[in-house]
Amino acid sequence: MSLLVVGSVAYDSVQTPAGSRDVSLGGSATYFSIAASYFSPVSLVAVIGDDFMPEHVELLESHAVDVSGLERREGKTFRWSGVYSTEDLNERETLDTQLNVFAEFKPVLTDQQRATEYLFLANIDPQLQLEVLGQMSPRPKLVALDSMNFWIEGARSHLEDIVGAVDLVFMDEGEARAFAGEENLAQAASRIHSVGPRIVVIKRGEHGVLVSNGGSLFALPAFILDRVVDPTGAGDSFAGGFMGMLAATGDLTDGGIRRAAVLGSVIGSFTVQDFSADRLAALSHDEITDRFAAFERLTGFAGLETGGGLPQRE
Amino acid sequence: MSLLVVGSVAYDSVQTPAGSRDVSLGGSATYFSIAASYFSPVSLVAVIGDDFMPEHVELLESHAVDVSGLERREGKTFRWSGVYSTEDLNERETLDTQLNVFAEFKPVLTDQQRATEYLFLANIDPQLQLEVLGQMSPRPKLVALDSMNFWIEGARSHLEDIVGAVDLVFMDEGEARAFAGEENLAQAASRIHSVGPRIVVIKRGEHGVLVSNGGSLFALPAFILDRVVDPTGAGDSFAGGFMGMLAATGDLTDGGIRRAAVLGSVIGSFTVQDFSADRLAALSHDEITDRFAAFERLTGFAGLETGGGLPQRE
User: Fold this and answer.
1) Residues in chain A within 8 Å Cβ distance of B187
2) Cα–Cα distance for residue pair A33/A267, rounded to 1 Å
3) Residue range A198-208: average pLDDT?
4) Alpha carbon separation from A146 to A118, A130, A171, A213, B257 (Å, rounded)
């Protein structure tokens, strides 16, 4: 089964406590595509400027990403620059956003793209997300979206429309609280369910992820790393690994969703170990398998009960 | 095997987003004792004033807590008051601290207390913690301590002495970072190990707990609750459940430590569902067992791999 992602391809400049990197490959659809490519074929729909370097198209192609939907326009590629807090890598400040050719992004899907079974609407204008979903035919087996505070504050009504039309939403902790108007995460997830999606995935950065799949809650801590170099793209890589797993297995049972969340976390944990997609793009299947096993060791406690149940004071 | 706790018994006044409670039973040793009592016999060493209510002694006795070390002095019981942030229940501000009789606390252990196999030094002056440890004979099988920012900033050298003398430390995330002088939690845990303790337990509030047992890391999310009424005592209840399990089972293997961390989290999750120790003190063994099972459902993903390993794009 195949997977379509519609989102941004960008050049980022970031400063983190570990250093800085200028004009390096970024964008939600970039991270998503490479992450998903480890499990499933991916088609990418995005727009780039005439400054986009051939080596970056080749990088995507080397992961068998279908780049026929990567539209090249006159002008510059989307650019973002930001700086991460030294105290809390979950916090970042945007220094500059230049939409450039992305401002004119109006994807028109091919017949083959319209028929893709798994669709990921990366963080773009909710109106555009709605328009893309409207082009799909037949409706995909699973539609997921990502969003951000910018749209929650500025395009609430369109955002509610698209959230109401998808099966799965990815939001970070702050976004879920803001969208739901509720501080308690379990209750925030319930309110988001009530808008439509049957799967709500709340990304908590270095604190892991909370998945609400209907009534079933799954909490997973983040993988523990000795060193985080650059958090940029962690959430998109997580979503890519997650959706790549679902598209590869077609397993939408609760167990399948949980496994997708673990694999998403595995992939995201590699992304943050270097700038840009440097580490993400260089993964081997063995490295992914080994880190999945390490995740099991990090979090496992099942089977530790004594045969007679828990001890009780006599 | 039995468990000795030396710490504070207090009256707290708290304001939380869910309401407020004046002059209710609190104190680190109180929460710890009641939590541990579900698994193991506990002896409590603390000081109270002549205002301490008989019903609160009876509450401890009803949990079979040995209160022979609860010294009553002329004056008032230790009082604390604080207010929790409506945005982030991990954040609280102390409004007032009155040490009262606690200022003169100089515990002298009985021979029986000195011989206890499991010792918990709750958050008190590190010099006092050292003095209590010096009274133990023979050295306990396991000595644990809790601390707080106040001592990290104000009594660093004594704190390092006692941290260097124990087997296990409980610290919250901010304390571990401050004590270690290191933002990365895995590296902070390594530095704390290098001071002495072979087990480092980092409490992350609503984000769970990270246990470093020598080289083995265990990350556990917090139990997800629809509603948190009052976070006061969560950390002490966690430590009580944790140490109560260790004292009950004597199991200091990595599996035993992990199980203790889960049971500590189970007990702490009950504490925050009501003010003071109201919920904590009213637990049944079935409720504890059920929530342990719920924790397994919340966090479990083991055994979800397909027989042939993870899928791989063809």
Assistant:
1) 226-227
2) 12
3) 95
4) 14, 13, 6, 16, 38
Q: Which residue has the tokens 């391809």?
A: A9
Q: How far apart are CA A158 and CA A131, in angstroms?
A: 11
DSSP line for A144-201: EEE--HHHHHH-HHHHHHHHTT-SEEEEEHHHHHHHHT-SSHHHHHHHHHHHS-SEEE
Q: Of the candidates A86, A217, A304, which has its C-beta nearest B224's C-beta?
A: A217
pLDDT (0 to 100) of residue A3? 98
Question: Looking at beta carbons, which residues of chain A come within 8 Å of B292?
Answer: 305, 310
Of all residues in chain B, the one with the smallest CA distance to A310 is B289
Distance of residue A37 Cα from the nearest chain B Cα, in angstroms: 7
Give the three-state DSSP class for B134. helix
CB contact under 8 A, A224 and B219: yes
Name the average pLDDT for chain B: 94
User: Which of these, A235, A239, A234, A159, lies nearest to A199 by C-alpha position?
Assistant: A239
Q: Do B41 and A313 touch (CB under 8 A)?
A: yes
Both tokens of A202, joined, read 């709340």
How many Å lie between the alpha carbon of A173 and the closest alpha carbon of chain B?
12
Taking one residue from A and the other from B, the number of pairs with CB-CB distance under 8 angstroms is 153
Sheet holding B10-16, edge to edge: B19-26, B10-16, B78-84, B92-98
Q: Are A34 and A65 in contact (CB under 8 A)?
A: yes
* Domains (range + CATH), chain B: 3-298 (3.40.1190.20)
Distance between CA atoms of residues B28 and B181, nearest Å: 26
Residues forming a β-bridge with A45: A6, A69
Confirm if A177 and A183 have CB atoms less than 8 A apart: yes
* Helices and strands of chain A, counted as H and E runs: 11, 13
Are B313 and A39 inside 8 Å of each other by CB? yes
Which site among A216, A246, A299, A305 would you substitute to test the B interface, given the most B Cβ atoms closer than 10 Å to its Cβ? Answer: A299
ipTM of the complex: 0.92
Cα angle B4-B9-B10, degrees, rounded to a multiple of 5: 165
pLDDT tens, position by position, B95-111: 999 999 999 999 999 99
